[in-house]
Amino acid sequence: MSAIAGWVDFERDLSPRADVVEAMAATLTHRGPDGRGTWAEGHAALAHRRLALLDVTESGTQPAVHITEGGTTVAVLTLDGAITNHTELRTELAARGHRFTGGGDGETALRAYLEWGADFLTRLEGLFAIAVWDVRSQELLLARDRLGVKPLSYHPTPTGVIFGSEAKAILAHPDVEPVVDADGLRELFAHSRKPGTAVYRGMREVVPGHVLVVRRPGSHDKRYWSLPAREHTDSLEDTVATVRGLLADAVASHLRADVPVGAMLSGGIDSSALTALAHRSLTAEGAGPLRSFSVNFTGYTENFEPHPTMRATPDAPFAALASQHIGSRHTEILLDTAALTDPEVHAASLRVQDAPSPLGDMDVSLIQFFARLRAEGFAAVLSGETADEVFNGYFWAYDPQHSNSQTFPWVSFERGHDAAASGLGTSMIDRRLRKDLDFIGYADQHYRDALTEVPHIDGDTPAERRAREVTYLALTRWAPTHLDRADRMSMAHGVQLRPPFCDRALVEYVYNVPAAMKRVDGVEKSLLRSAVADLLPEAVLQRKKSAYPTTQEAAYGDFVRRRFTELAGDRNAAVAPLLDTSATADATTAGRSPQGAFAWVERASMEMVLQLETWLTEYRIDLRL
Fold this sequence. Notes:
six-stranded antiparallel β-sheet, alpha/beta, Glutamine Phosphoribosylpyrophosphate, subunit 1, domain 1, 40% helix, 24 helices, 2 domains, Rossmann fold, 625 residues
């Protein structure tokens, strides 16, 4: 909780180099504004920036260090995230003779490591990125939670490793240069992230559900969790009841904190279900009402224009209806065009992600939403992230045109429009460069590789087998991208986003529920709707999925086009060598405005170019193509 960084070098004494990891951690202050800690001894140095959610006293400070009675340090741990079952673990560990000095979950995780070794990861629930330095064996463990809610990157060196919650911490190390090669650009644009890969050359990400063990002879990666394929024998009635129980348990565990926890409420089925269960849990303990929050744009509801596949209805009326029915204390965070067109906030959204994004106003509104949330006094919030991946909520999960394609279903959808055929945000990139780097082939090969991982059971029909594959791809290739974005945007202002739909027990159970039970009579996410039918008003219960809002204000589109046109005309711009002259000329034609259902896709390409320019200049990227 909630930023970690470190350095291991088996050929050097790092005791006098604590300043290096301190500088690395300083780049992550936004993730942990409530305190800091550093430990450096022998071949290892670890640093932490704290977001105080549990045990807000000094006893919760990290890194957590275990010292024997003889005064010898045994192991050191630093944690980003929340161990949602830490209370149960403490009870079990106390029964085994462990004694605790504070109430933080970092100390719980360290004691669990001392009790069970590397197998302790299988006993942890929640969202976490962990680094453990074992002084006895002189080895480092780097691990991430099962679905990759919390980010963790590393950079191997000839004599050890450098690691951090975000790439910027690693780039702050004097031995690391911001080099991006062809593979890095492929990963940036392909919109189908490969687990473990990174945009910067030499950098990697710890794969969700894996642990990286670094020792003097060398490093090795080990999977400690994978989605299990099991036969589902429960009736529909029993399945609905089980989902309700598992989701209620997940929500209750994610509410554990010594500070208030709020809820993001869009008025969709996912966020409304969480808000209802959370409010019920809090009021049962006499701690309610729950505070809920939503984001909206000035004039958006009144002038809303539906999108045929992405957004059928505006959020605001449904969020208000859900809140009133549930009884939460609701706050709508309203953003005007001035807030969305602040160039500094656009730059800030890039710095948080350490790489360009084509999402523009979606990123800007999200980062400002969390700023306001923190100003309201909330450092943790529930979110409906990953519900669509778990319950097959995306239209491409069941539309045969995309679900049965020979690539990722979401990539198939994107290729329905020329502006996104090579990946969202790529249409302004030089055509020859796109062909040489083969963004399409990169994504399709990754798809074929991913299919080889999917667990199946004997007896699956071809349709059920394919449905299982689509769900697996969504959980392991689509969800991590959005979880990473949500974490970085929330942590930009020291707010921990907690997604109960990522709960291990819930994910494992629903993964094995037949697709027909998840979508009874063709009703989108009918399983989830049935599980919370008694908690929500009918209009919210039956509302069709509506994606996170993007502004429809013409003034915002004019802002993007104006900035893009100015940049495209600058021959000295850093991004100029990457641009396609024909595409940029067409895009800057006076009076030409993207029209139709895919207007946001075309705008995304302009947004991407603007972000690329900021990235190349501010990060001093060394492009080696």
